């Protein structure tokens, strides 16, 4: 049994082929897709975060708005780039959104991927310490963020406050119980997955790994997941961790599906360069349902994960993407034992 959700980048463009023409369209349609996905029986609505791009950026207003329109679906990110974040302010935003959702937030965070501008985090006022890297700064921000989510007091109260304080050191408000256990780290390598387990974070693995050993993507990702689980057990954490993988999956069940994705039937892994090193990108799954069932049954990483995020082509609009999600839930999930 798996939780099945969608992951949207929230692209928007003025192209005549796009049904998402503006930032307003991207935000409002993201909310509508979360509503439609919940109605279809999906378990999660996740949104990518990219700065300086015609995509979704600041996630918390969107998450709170989607929370107010839904009641059961998990709401999350995949992922927030921690190089850009003020971790204490982020803890307040996350706490508020989680309380609005009734404890449904699932936040994916990470060092982030290559961005649209050079060292964009510097424009946000964040500069690595001397002798430190931007990746190390992201982990430092994460440490502060996770500590704040514990809800423990750390700030010295004013002896003459405007309002009466509770006794002792003060914590950030609002505090969202349980949110610390619902934070995920987007890991692009096997070593990072092991670090993620040591920190007590859930694992979010996408259709990209920043390394290549020559084996198929799904097998390399399955190894990453196993290393994560082994490191989690060695760390002695009490709760069970969660692991998600992302896939582009398009069951071809009507003429429009065939027109849009028939050419992807023979998609394969791709190997390229990212940040100066080898990277392996996962394939797209597109075919008639019976053939997809056979292909997806061989995907070792999906089998190893408890959560599957469907990357959706959001510029095709809410109606079509809701159709894709429903097709996976109806035509594939029961046959594969996911439901």
Automatic annotation (TrEMBL):
Q: Which residues form the Luciferase-like domain?
A: 9-257
Please give the Pfam families that the UniProt record associates with this protein: Bac_luciferase
Q: Which Gene3D superfamilies does its entry note?
A: Luciferase-like domain
Q: Which residues cross the membrane?
A: none
Supply the alphabetized keyword list.
Oxidoreductase
Enzyme Commission number(s) of this protein: 1.-.-.-
Q: Which SUPFAM superfamilies match?
A: Bacterial luciferase-like
What InterPro entries is this protein classified in? Bact_Lucif_Oxidored, Luciferase-like_dom, Luciferase-like_sf
Q: Listed GO molecular functions? A: oxidoreductase activity
Enzyme class comes to oxidoreductase
Q: Which domain of life does the protein's organism represent?
A: Bacteria
**Protein name as it appears in the record:** LLM class flavin-dependent oxidoreductase
Q: Which organism is it from?
A: Pseudonocardia benzenivorans
Q: What are the top taxonomic ranks of the organism?
A: Bacteria, Bacillati, Actinomycetota, Actinomycetes, Pseudonocardiales
């Amino acid at each position: 049994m798996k939780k099945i959700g969608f992951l949207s980048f929230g692209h928007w463009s003025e192209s005549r082929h796009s049904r998402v023409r503006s930032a307003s369209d991207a935000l409002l349609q993201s909310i509508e897709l979360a509503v439609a996905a919940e109605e279809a029986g999906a378990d999660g609505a996740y949104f990518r975060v990219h700065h300086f791009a015609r995509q979704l950026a600041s996630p918390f207003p969107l998450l709170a708005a989607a929370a107010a329109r839904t009641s059961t679906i998990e709401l999350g990110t995949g992922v927030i780039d921690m190089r850009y974040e003020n971790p204490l302010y982020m803890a307040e935003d996350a706490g508020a959104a989680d309380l609005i959702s009734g404890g449904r937030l699932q936040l994916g965070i990470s060092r982030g991927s290559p961005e649209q501008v050079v060292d964009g985090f510097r424009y946000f006022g964040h500069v690595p310490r001397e002798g430190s890297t931007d990746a190390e700064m992201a982990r430092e921000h994460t440490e502060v963020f996770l500590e704040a989510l514990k809800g423990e007091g750390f700030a010295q109260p004013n002896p003459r406050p405007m309002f009466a304080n509770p006794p002792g050191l003060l914590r950030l408000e609002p505090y969202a119980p349980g949110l610390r256990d619902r934070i995920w780290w987007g890991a692009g390598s096997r070593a990072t997955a092991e670090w993620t387990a040591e920190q007590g974070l859930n694992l979010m693995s996408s259709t990209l790994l920043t390394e290549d050993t020559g084996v198929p993507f799904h097998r390399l990702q399955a190894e990453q997941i196993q290393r994560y689980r082994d490191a989690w057990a060695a760390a002695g954490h009490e709760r069970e961790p969660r692991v998600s993988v992302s896939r582009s999956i398009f069951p071809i069940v009507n003429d429009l599906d065939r027109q849009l994705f028939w050419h992807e039937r023979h998609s394969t892994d791709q190997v390229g360069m990212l940040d100066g090193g080898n990277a392996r990108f996962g394939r797209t799954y597109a075919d008639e349902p019976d053939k997809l069932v056979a292909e997806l049954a061989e995907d070792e990483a999906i089998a190893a994960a408890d959560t599957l995020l469907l990357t959706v082509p959001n510029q095709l609009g809410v109606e079509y993407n809701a159709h894709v999600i429903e097709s996976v839930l109806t035509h594939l999930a029961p046959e594969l034992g996911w439901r």
